[in-house]
Amino acid sequence: MLCTSEEKVHPTDVSKIQLGNLIQTSLFSNIEKHWSLAAWIKDNIKKKECCFYVEDAREGICKCGYQKNQHCDEAIKPEDYVGEQWHKHRHIRETPTDAFGDISFGGLGQKTGKYVRVSSDTTCESLYQLMTEQWKLRSPNLLISVTGGAKNFYMKNHLKDKFRRGLIKVAQTTGAWILTGGTHAGVMKHVGMAVRDYSLSSGLMEGQIVVIGVAPWGVIHNSDTLIHPEGCFPAHYSLDEQGQDRLSCLDINHTHFLLVDDGTHGHYGTEIELRTNLEGLISQQSLGNRESGVKIPVVCVVLNGGPGTLDTIYNSMMNNTPCVVLEGSGRLADVIAQVAALPVSKVTLVLIRKLLKRFFGKEYKSFTDLQVNEWTKKIQDIIRMPRLLTVFRIDEDKNYDVDVAILQALLKASRSDEHAGRRSWERQLELAVAWNRVDIAESEIFTEESQWTSCDLHPAMFSALVGDKPEFVRLLLENGVCLRTFLEEKETLCKLYAHLPACFFLRKLAKRAQGVKNISLRHVSEEVRHLLGSFTQPLYVPSRYKKTKDDVRLTVPSKDPLDLPCSGEDPTALTFWDPGRDLFLWAVVQNNRELAEIGWEQCRDCIAAALAASKILRKLAQESGEDDNEEAKEMRELANHYEKQAIGVFSECHSWDAQRAQRLLIRISPLWGKSTCLWLALEADDKSFVAHSGVQALLTQIWFGELSVENPHWKILLCMIFFPLIYTGFLIFRRDEDIQRRKLAVDPVLAGSPDAKIKRHLRVPVQKSDSELKPLNCSSRLMSLYTSPQVKFYWNIVSYFGFLWLFAVVLMIDFQTFPSWRELLLYVWLISLVCEEVRQLYHDFDGSGFRRKAKMYIRDLWNILDVLSIMLFISGLVCRLQANATVLYVGKVLLCIDFIIFCLRLMAIFTISRTLGPKIIIVRRMMMDLFFFMFLLSIWVVAYGVAKQSIMIDNEERLNWIVRGAVYDPYLIIFGNFPTNIDNTQFDKSSCSVDATDPLKPKCPVLNGDNLPMFPEWLTIIMLCVYLLFANILLLNLLIAIFNYTFQEVQDNTDTIWKFQRYELIKEYHSRPALPPPFILLSHLILFIRGALQRDPSERHKHFRQELEQTEEEELLSWEAFMKDNYLVSTRQDESQSVEHRIQDTAEKVGAMSELLEGEQEMVSTTMAKRLSNLEEQVSESGKALRWIIDALKSQGCKSKMQPPLMSKSSDRDDGESSGQETDDESAPHTFARQLVYPGSNVVKRFPVPEEKVPWEVNFSLYNPPVYNPQDSSDSDTSVLDKYRNPEGRTGIRGKGALKSLGPNHILHPIFTRWRDAEHQVLEFLSVSEDVEKPVTLPGGPAKPDEPLPQTLERILGKKLNDKTKSELKAGEQVYSGYVDDSRNTDNAWVEATIITLHCDKHTPLMDELNRIVESSASSHQPLKWREVNSTACVCPFQQEALRDVAKLHKM
To answer: How many CA atoms lie within 13 A of 433 on its CB side?
Structure first.
């Protein structure tokens, strides 16, 4: 720990230090991190302290607010400030901070956060660096600034629940930072309680909500517990609300604290400026470190609040920050909510006073008229910006939480930016993707009014893929993203692999690309081929456009029909390209289930894709090296999932058309390295898929060859002996079945059935070769019979039994000194077996290469038995041919052992049997169990045997008898051979040798004088009992239990395992020559001549691999896609009808109903209150109307016999002042000229002028505007200023301000227009851009009343062009002339503009000169540019209106 103070750190028990290397390493790592953080903070973060103690009116208290003992010695006895008055800016200095580290609040869950004491002058860049780099916070996708009442206030339960739930939801889903005041009171307390509820309900594994409290250091209670020069890790802070007095405690549910220190104590609000600047800095950061230009959005959420909150809202909205106000939270929030829907003209001083009195209660009496006047002006400015103001009401029909209101407010602010145009929609989409809020995108972005193209959505698609947002990926695909165009760019797929998250595949890829700057698709292709297997071809081949060895891109179909592939490239690689395959593979290698599912749904060759994914994932899980690794488990689960998906689609295909489904299994897939579905399933060890009835039907069909699968076995066996029966129709051939099926297909009766029509519609067109089917001739039938794998198998069984019979005869009867003819025949027979094994080793069945074939050969247990038996036979034969009789006998022994191995090889032959095959699998599994059991048993056998032998026999030196006594005898005891030599009663001296001289007898134990053994008889008997207890009872029963478990486990899967292993036997006999051993030597000779002498390549087996034509391939894939859609629809239907889904559906409905019932009472009361308020308002208005009618009748001399009724006068009028006439909604007074902050000066502020007080005719006794003349103070004379009065009314400031003269300041703007196209559909105007971030403007500038063109125009366009256009501009049509609502206007100076339009035709000297000047001004600080005349033209409001008039002139 860095903190050494006993008050800050609990003492550590010495015994806990010695906990092991792992804990020590973790401890040292934490200490290193703490030291690094402390060093950085000391260098970059400061605090403030008073350096001049001057006692205040209170005894012992300095003017800074701190006590005397809290000052340093230099401050108490200063030498530099003698005789000076205390001043905040001079006598408060910055020093390195002494309060930082971790803060622990204790209690439930041991809440721990981070804190730091910072100076109020700290740069925001340093604070942002502290949070992101030192505190390791991820940059936010959204900043939520929560402001409002700093004191505790009441909020209705329904609104409170909605606020808490919505705030946490928006922070959790978007990755937002929540910024508050940080204290345990008011709105900050509500935010903290929301975080607490989330932590308790979800646990710490769900991800932490970042809540940053920015609080003033000088008002923090118990702040001394946070101070330590070296930092506290942690500092223990206690919540003491009872003793805090005027101070405040930190909220225990915040995660981070920035404690702002201005050197004073007890002053609130010192953090506001730093907090505002920090929010501004964060809002300028790029969203997610993207280059799209989208910045981190900021939103202000308002609850309750007072005058300070109003200033915060006003400043935020003036900085284009949207605000969300919660109606019902009280005070200012309710005041704004009440007037938000009203026109500005209705928001009067009278109404604001009424609302302030209603919602502030007793606090209203302390408000002055000047304050109410200023607040009214600010509220009017706030509601004048409806795009930035959102009011959340709980009584509306829309039942959504605060999170939706917050996000909708941000999107509304972005959408209503009239200058952004298309970019606004793209920015909204970027925000929605960053927040991962599909619901917002569906309701607010993908609407009927927004038209999206695929290219527009590509950046969002890339962000959604890289950000792992599968729901957004699916939404974008549904709304127009075309994967083909998205991945057609050669860089897109490379960027996706460059942005892979941390995963095992990325580590393998980085290792493969070691030494190369960038990872290319070549590395991806090599790694994927390694995972799939060397039997596949690379998925991404180098493009013919390749420039360097690392620039590899995905080859796509060429758009130019004459663009042929270069030499050395496979044309099919350019013909077939599936972008869904690329997306699916990218998602699979990173083990991303959701994205992989979306990619798989987009794949064309979906069955092969699912099987390839299963193979890749199982290979990755295997190479990860840790079976218990969580990532490996997830990979295996995903592999099983895609095996099920492949089974589901194949089942759908097989149910519709079995023949076409079988063709899917053996077709060569160009998209997956020219492999087949069947081979991928076998390589992936997908036993369930191979065990599918459709796959087994294909294997059975291959097993029967050209024979029909309907033929019983006895017929085939009979025809093997009497082959002429095949010509009598005794056996059915597949060709005959195909001809019969073809006849039935064209039967008019069967063709009329609905099922037949569907099948015919989905069937592959009949090929020419299929349309000419003819019956087999005699030779073809004979060849088809004997080349059938099943017939080959039967003959080989007969041959093998014959071999074993001959082997047994030679060993038992005819084993002579010189080999007999039977023995020589046996040798020839064995030679044929050896040749067959060599052929199997070198036979490249699938074109995968000799190395891989050799690995597969060695991996097979039966092949190992074959090699072992052959090597043992050769060894025995070598010994048998020796003349020495002993060696000859050794050779016979070896051959006898070899006979055992040959007999065991019989089990492999019977794996084809449906009855014996599964049993053989069980035996193999039990043999593995028995091997591990024998290892366990040997421990007990050796332990007992050695101990017993040592106790009973003294120094036995004969090795054979040592082994018998220590191993053999204990082993026989297990099987009931009870020993007699451990009991003295059964001791027989004649059965042993005393001095171990008799080699046939064991050595006798040590004898006593009575010739009886001296060993302790009781000990040997106890040892025997214990040994029998563990070995015979415990271990043997354990073995039985293991066998039983293995049997039960394998029995459930034996059928699946047998079907999977059946393939190898079928493949072996499919490629095996027709003749059995030893006649197979003739076939081997023919194969050798054909392969070696004629160099004839081996024939590929069309039954296992079939390459289709492109048309047939496309039709088959389309049919497969149709079946996949059917499968997905049926799967979703099953899920929706499942019990779990129904229970979840019911729970959601019950929850929604409960929530509605809880909020109903509050909603009804709120609605009733509003209705009563409206009724009172209507009654008041009716009274006013009646009073007006009475006054009008009296003024016309009408009299009544009765006295008029007494009516209460309205109290809504201003005291002694006229409220003025209501301003027309359509003609609001100048608004820019009444902005509170005058442009160009942060010091001078306008006097607030509410809407109704703008006209000079309206009485405004409070009006006292400042005078501002920055250039000439002589213009401040009141008599001079009174000569000029703004024609539009009051502005809140007097003088000429930033304008050049009092009275009107004339400006002239010429509008140059042209047609962009020949059809006169697009009109353009000439604009000037002074700054990228500022709106463009029209060329022009100030002008004198008697001057037609300003001098600024001559400077911009040049004197030559100015002379050319001067006369034409005089004759141009004037589109606007008059007052301009300019922010520089004052009561005595204002802007008047004249706008003239001039249309330029193409191919004229004037147009050529304009174009030349536009091109030459591109590098200047005021470049000219032609822009389209539309509603999104980024110009000033009055210029926008002039452009509308220009468009009308051109009938646009």
So the answer is: 29
CB 1327 within 8 A of CB 1336: yes
Q: How far apart are CA 392 and CA 390, in angstroms?
A: 6
Q: What is the pLDDT of residue 1366?
A: 63
Report the pLDDT averaged over residues 229-255: 84
805, exposed or middle or buried, with CB in 10 Å at 0-12, 13-18, 19+?
exposed
Q: What backbone phi and psi angles, to 5 degrees, belong to 1179?
A: -65, -40
CB-count burial class (<10 Å; 0-12, 13-18, 19+) for 1265? middle
Query: Residues 977, 982, 986, CA angle at the centre, nearest 5°?
Result: 85
Query: What distance lies between CA 839 and its chain's CA centroid?
Result: 52
pLDDT value at 86 more than 80: no
DSSP line for 750-787: HHTSHHHHHHHHHSPPPPHHHHT-----HHHHHHHHHT
Q: Which helix (H) or strand (E) is 215 found in, with range?
A: strand 210-216
Q: How far apart are CA 900 and CA 860, in angstroms?
A: 19
pLDDT reported for residue 258 = 93
Which pLDDT band, with edges at 50, 70 and 90, does 1272 fall under? Answer: low
Residues 154-187 have pLDDT tens digits of 777 778 888 888 888 888 888 889 999 888 888 8
d(CA 377, CA 359): 18
Q: Could you give the count of Cα atoms lying within 13 Å of 1332 in the half-sphere of its Cβ?
A: 2
For residues 1222-1229, give the mean pLDDT.
Answer: 50
Tokens matching residue 1402: 């193409």
What residues contact residue 1324 under an 8 Å CB cut-off, 6+ apart? 1313, 1314, 1315, 1316, 1426, 1427, 1428, 1429
Rounded to an integer, what is the distance from CA 358 to the centroid of its chain? 49
Residue 96 pairs in a beta bridge with 46
- Sequence-ordered alpha helix ranges (H) in 133-185: 157-174
Distance CA 676, CA 664 (A): 8
- Which letter does DSSP use for residue 998 in this model? -
CA geometry: angle at 1404 spanning 1399 and 1409, to 5°?
Answer: 85
**324: which residues sit within 8 A by CB, 6+ positions away?**
299, 300, 301, 302, 390, 391, 392, 402, 405, 406, 409
Q: What is the DSSP letter of 1344?
A: -
State residue 335's pLDDT score: 92
Per-residue pLDDT tens digits for 925-973? 888 888 888 888 888 888 888 888 888 888 888 888 888 888 888 888 8
Determine whether 195 is exposed, middle or buried from the number of CB atoms within 10 Å of its CB (0-12, 13-18, 19+): buried
Q: What is the dihedral of CA 254, 257, 263, 268, to 10 degrees?
A: -30
Rounded Cα distance between 150 and 61, Å, is 26
Question: What whole-number distance in Å separates Cα of residue 665 and Cα of residue 715?
Answer: 30
- Rounded to whole angstroms, how far apart are CA atoms 944 and 970? 7
Residue 1041: which pLDDT band, with cuts at 50, 70 and 90?
confident
User: What is the distance between the alpha carbons of residues 592 and 638, in angstroms, rounded to a whole number?
Assistant: 9
Largest Cα–Cα separation, the chain: 161
> With bands split at pLDDT 50, 70 and 90, how would you rate the model's confidence at 818?
confident
Each residue's pLDDT tens digit, 957-967: 888 888 888 88
Name the nearest CA neighbour of 49 among 100, 92, 112: 92
Please give the single-letter amino acid code of residue 199: S
Residue owning tokens 């004229």 = 1404
Q: Which residue has the tokens 């069980």?
A: 922
Q: What is the pLDDT of residues 1320-1365, one digit of tens each?
A: 778 888 888 765 556 677 877 777 666 655 555 565 556 666 666 6
Instruction: Between 645 and 1191, name the one with better pLDDT.
Output: 645
Plot region of 815 (φ>0 → left; ψ -120 to 50 → alpha; else → beta): beta
CB of 313 closer than 8 Å to CB of 323: yes
Query: Nearest-CA neighbor of 697 among 726, 663, 740?
Result: 663
Within 10 A of 652 (CB to CB), how many other CB atoms are there? 20
Question: For residue 100, what is the enclosing H or E element?
Answer: strand 100-106
